[in-house]
Every structure is written in structure tokens, then in C-alpha cells.
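Input sequence (141 aa), recorded before submission:
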Amino acid sequence: MRILVSACLLGYNCKYNGENNYNSNIVELLKEHEVVPVCPEMLGGLSCPRIPCEKVGDKIMDKEGNDCTKQFIKGAEIALNIAKEKQVDFAILQRRSPSCGYSLIYDGTFNGNLIVGSGIFAQKLQSLDIPIMEAESEKFF
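Predicted structure, C-alpha cell format:
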């Protein structure tokens, strides 16, 4: 299987705070599969570290009020092209992210509140019917 994975879950330091979301369970599960790591935010030209961003309506805003929507869209499109080129079977994404969140994302208040929704990259994957699982899922294959 060819599996696209949020790069932060594999230990890449690409989170907004310069760190990662390394998940040893996912790394272990993926040992016998072809892994395609992506970070849409970095692909879109955002720095690492960077000011945290959340989805506010149809826009992605950073905590200081700057509109980062263009970078998020650009990164999501680049990552989607990688997914298509590599013909991935499914994706494992980081929950809550304005890019990769699939079932829950932050509500745009920067207070840690969650709402039902998907990030920009997750929405693009859904539009191609590429199955998505989140890092916290109990079952992957």
C-alpha cells in the first residue's frame, strides 16, 4: 500500500512551534508500506516555526490576524498533486490542523476549542475520494 502521511507524525519538525507529532504506533504500522510524507503548510511556503493558524470561516488566519489562506491553499494543492502523482491508497493525517484536520479542527478563537470540520488539505483529499484516517484512529488497515 502507498500511504500519504502528515510529515509531523513521522517525526519531521514542521509543526507551527518547530516541533513534531511523532507517533511511534503509526511509524511501526507503516514499516511494510510505501510512505509519502507531506506537510502542506511547509509546501505552501510557511516557515517553521511560525505563528499558529486556525480556520476562521473560509479563511486561515494566524494568531496575529494575518491572512495565510493563500499559503494554505498553495500547500494543499501541491500536497494533493503529490498524492495524485504517487497514487496513494489513503492518508493518515494529524487531527485538529487547519490543513490536515479531518473530523475536528480548532474553532478560530485560538482558545483550544474544537469544532466539527476539515482542514483545507483534508477537504481536497475528500474531493478525490481518497480515504482519510486520523492519527488517533484505533484501526488503520
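Checked by second reader. Residues 60 and 66 are 9 Å apart (CA to CA).
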